[in-house]
Amino acid sequence: MSILLAIVDALKEALFMFWEVLWPLILGFGLSAIVQALVSHRTLARLLGDSSPRSLTLATLFGVASSSCSYAAVALARSLFRKGASFTTAMVFELASTNLVIELGVILIVFLGWPFAAAEFTGGVIMVILIALIFRFTLTPKLVQIAKEHAERNMLGRMEGHAAMDMSIEGGGSFFQRLFSGRGFTSVSHLFVMDWASVWQDVALGFLIAGALAAWIPNSFWQAFFLTGHPTLAKIEGPLVGPLVATISFVCSVGNVPLAAVLWRGGISFGGVVSFIFADLIVLPVLDIYRRYYGGRVSLYILLTFYITMALAGYIVELLFGALGIIPTNRNVTLITESPTVNYTFVLNIIFLVLAAALVWRFLRTGGPAMLSMMNKPADQMGEMGEMGNMPGMDHPHPIDHAGKQDESSRHS
Hints:
Layout: H1 2-20, H2 22-38, H3 41-45, H4 53-64, H5 70-82, H6 87-99, H7 102-111, H8 114-138, H9 141-151, H10 160-164, E1 165-166, H11 175-179, H12 182-216, H13 219-225, H14 231-247, H15 256-266, H16 270-278, H17 284-294, H18 296-324, H19 334-337, H20 344-365, H21 368-372, E2 398-399, H22 408-412
Antiparallel strand pairs: 1-2
Helix pairs in contact: 1-12, 2-7, 2-12, 2-20, 4-6, 5-6, 5-17, 6-8, 7-8, 8-16, 8-18, 12-15, 12-20, 14-16, 14-18, 15-16, 16-18, 17-18
């Protein structure tokens, strides 16, 4: 009976946390869908053929305008690399796509507060700069060639079909004219539903693990583990341990935010919790995809360089925000302890559930289920997508077409 009660307590914690952040999740994914609908992936992707500051900036912007799904980001990065983008810009795109997206910022603000969202975006930019510098001095032509050879083998990952879809609205008209047109509504609805479909497992797993940790593990354990009695050592340990905890959590995308909240309440340093959130690109399932995409040697290189980048970014953010005096001191995460009540959260959840229902309805009425079934198809099969189902008010979505550019390996030789 005690085991059953413990499971019930964990599920209650998970459900209560999910209810408290439901409207921010819907808002974040809705805003992300609008950005993706109005920014052409194909146009940006054609410009990523080298590792110049301009290409790195465009890769970062491309990531900001993409889905936050880690698996889709990894799949799209390989597609960019195969079609001519440099390995460096492909990896920069990954970092931006999972750390500089709107939905992540929204849920961080609601869950932990604005300093954490500011730290996430600041750290995301820092990581882009760091990884570009690290790759410049350590990425050899041989590693690039190995990555290219394995990438051309076209091993299957996850969410490749989703990564290959570009449903941006091209053509004339102002921002609002395109957004509020029939094509705009359809595009936003498809992007909204498919983004949810791509991350719901990670979101659910994140809340379930966070609920279990909050219900079963006392704060005293976390305080001892994170050396809260030794503030200096805690600041040193945090950014080193944070990515390691993330690696074994199996949770990526926005699903790791509830876990971050539990760790922050338990005593991990500010830099540690930020580096934990950064590390969704080195969780074990994603590392296995790197191995399939680029080979074991390159996957180990990605793990090592990403870990160093994430830890260093955590230290820099800790120092920067500490110097500015904006590191939060209150570790009481109210969303972990609150129970649902009839308040502003309840009202906003109802309003945003109605908006979500309208987007789902539009998705179902405009050929959405057929596209949903293609999300896990190999990217090279997405060329047939334009023949699948007529969607009223919208041109057929198309797979991303990247113009070939100079191979990075040739520039290093």
